[in-house]
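To assess whether ligand presence alters the predicted conformation, the chain was also submitted together with iron/sulfur cluster. Input:
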Amino acid sequence: RLTSLGVTIDSAKRCEELVKILLFKVGLDYQNPYLNPFREFQRWKHHPSVQPTLEGGTRIAYGARALNEGGFQSIPKLTFPGGLLIGCSPGFMNVPKIKGTHTAMKSGMLASEAIFSQLTNENLQSKTIGLDVKEYEENLKNSWVWKELYAVRNIRPSCHSILGVYGGMIYTGLFYWLLRGMEPWTLKHPGPDFAQLKPAKDCTPIEYPKPDGKISFDLLSSVALSGTNHEHDQPAHLTLRDDSIPVSRNLALFDGPEQRFCPAGVYEYIPLETGEGSRLQINAQNCVHCKTCDIKDPSQNINWVVPEGGGGPAYNGM
Ligand code: SF4
């Protein structure tokens, strides 16, 4: 379960040297395929309690990122022959704090200690290739990382309780802030984010206001500020498993949600030259590598692979 994050930086009117970093989180378990996280972000900036902070400022950067919100219930097996999952990849983020740097660093420290211990183990010195360092997972489970993630395990899934988001807030107040997550039960997530979308026919299209160019902005001018630059000769990092799925399923059933959930305008349905029907165009050069498409594509047909290094985004100051 992941969450997409929109970021923009604005310098404020009252203090020219002040740089404001706005973070806007959208849970990717949303159901309406017409929801557009980027445009939600632009609309939110016009909220009466947000707009005055931004008035007179200048937009200087933009970016987006997916956050691992699955937490304790979603941590996979952490070791395999020849490898370990450390850092952010297994999902060690503390959800209420939206922070995972400390847990990621600690997992790296525990991994290096476990690897060192195995490499210096006399019985294993003849076998250094394909080692399965199981000690790392045991050490992690005995560390404060595990305790911290366990204490916050029910916060995100509580938002899916019968009481909804407000019920989740009450739950968080009661069981986390007062009891520090000591309740003896563990709530479950309702399923993967891509499976939450409802068919477009069951949902209402969302009308978003036009950006004013001062506080809210259009997508492409924002992406231009992300500092992304793909070399022309690098292999495609966004491909489709089946070229027919976007039109036959995503467009037909969900009205092409990839046009809206991508915060960089990478996916676009354009009319066919014949004049009948449309096809999906992938503007991969715009990609800011947030990984949302890999998570939210309702057909799980988009194959996102890590792009070549050095192409950005360049989030200086974020
Ligand atoms: S193509 Fe995918 S990874 Fe790239 S910006 Fe769009 S949603 Fe994010």
